[in-house]
Amino acid sequence: MESSPSAILKLLLPKTPFILKTALWHTLGLAPTSSKWDLRTEITINVLREMVGPNSPGSTITKLQRLTTKDPGVKGKVWVAKVKLDVPAEDDIRQLMFKAIEEMGTGEEQWTKPDAKPLEGEWNGYRAGARDDEPEPTGLSEKEKYEHLLKEASSKVTILYFHGGAMYLLDPATYRATTSRLAKETGGRVFSVRYRLAPQNPFPAALLDAFTAYLSLLYPPPDAPHAPVPAAQIVFGGDSAGGTCCTALLQLLLQIHRSTPAGQTPSVLFHGEKVAIPLPAGVALTSPWIDISRSQPSIEEAVTYDYLPPPSQTDKRDFPRCEAWPTDPPRADLYCEGSALLHPLVSPLAAGDWHASPPLFFSVGQEMLRDEDAVLARRAAAQGVPVVWREFEAMPHCFAMLLEGLKAGHVHYEEFGKFCREVVEGKTVETNGEFIVAKTMVRRDADVKTGLTELTDEQVVEYMQKGKERIERKTRKGEDASAESRPML
């Protein structure tokens, strides 16, 4: 999105009275968040609420995508090397994914088989010697930029990163500040995937791109700039809907392993060679969205510290018609058919089996997605998966990316980087949880196995089923959809 001073001024000028009122209430201690937030956070989050709340002007998906996928250019402390990798000549990875979808489903889900497409993305690394406003060097090829990136890497960490944006917004280009910071914290490099966006490319197009990206790191096609990356050096990373991609890809890999006869290594034909399909070193999640049915209690109740619009605000709203939405024939959800909302590769919260998963890292705020994240963390830990849980008091969705300079943001990046380094270095990761107090950053132990949530698995299933039914009812002709929708994240 455009971020020039003139564009920001044009956006904020009409909100001056609102900003002044917000500042006054915070200063007087009258805001419910005054004791937890500083003034900058108070203003930022409240302006965001105004921008996405009930009084914000409606915009079409086509216009939103045009705005949020615009490349802002490369400047500052980041190396960027763009890549476009060829499609494998054989169709094996598509068919292997389709087989897993069928095995994990009920047989009642409807979904469209996507075509294979060239994989696009970019390598990002930390450029230590650059000024914050310094443009990237001129006259370098993408391969030469990648070589410069490699020279500055000091560790073997490779993060396969999936951006957020509710599966229909944003682009790797808009995440360079985040991926540069992750490269700095880990000493490694980041491959940021440009997965296909919904609603034009519904499930499982993004999952196919994620699977292709992982195999392409392990076994580079001839046109790739990188050498093969061992699975033990790869960490899946993602925020919000990028967390959907991470956990769905992990479940796909686990299912492929589960369906392979004992004693055998799962494999697939990829660019003319039969290759093994290993698991990554770990998965690092920032405010992951893992329940596409948008149905757990916190998504309606945890609004005090979040900026995402609650159901009471979104119930009566819909996107204006455009070439992208609604689809023809109508589809219940932007990302998938209504019948597929509870498939474990659509909503990974529906997956019950996480045995043999590599270590998982969660960084969450006291946000609307907290319940689903807590349930997954508890479930995985109970099955013997090492889980690192970091919950930040009074912090909203993806706070570290929005609130630059905040103490909690620094702690988030430090913990994220530490986890990635430890799993790649082969250090033993023990399950542990911490609740990090606002402002002071005092840490309190949190019991991942028993202390994160009181929701039972049975309640989670019931909530998800009701959420699916509500979303499906929205598309039924003649029915009032005002109480059926849930916020798009």
Automatic annotation (TrEMBL):
<feature type="domain" description="Alpha/beta hydrolase fold-3">
    <location>
        <begin position="159"/>
        <end position="400"/>
    </location>
</feature>
<dbReference type="Pfam" id="PF07859">
    <property type="entry name" value="Abhydrolase_3"/>
</dbReference>
<dbReference type="InterPro" id="IPR013094">
    <property type="entry name" value="AB_hydrolase_3"/>
</dbReference>
<feature type="compositionally biased region" description="Basic and acidic residues">
    <location>
        <begin position="467"/>
        <end position="480"/>
    </location>
</feature>
<keyword id="KW-0378">Hydrolase</keyword>
<dbReference type="GO" id="GO:0016787">
    <property type="term" value="F:hydrolase activity"/>
</dbReference>
<dbReference type="InterPro" id="IPR029058">
    <property type="entry name" value="AB_hydrolase_fold"/>
</dbReference>
<dbReference type="InterPro" id="IPR050300">
    <property type="entry name" value="GDXG_lipolytic_enzyme"/>
</dbReference>
<feature type="region of interest" description="Disordered">
    <location>
        <begin position="467"/>
        <end position="489"/>
    </location>
</feature>
<protein>
    <recommendedName>
        <fullName>Alpha/beta hydrolase fold-3 domain-containing protein</fullName>
    </recommendedName>
</protein>
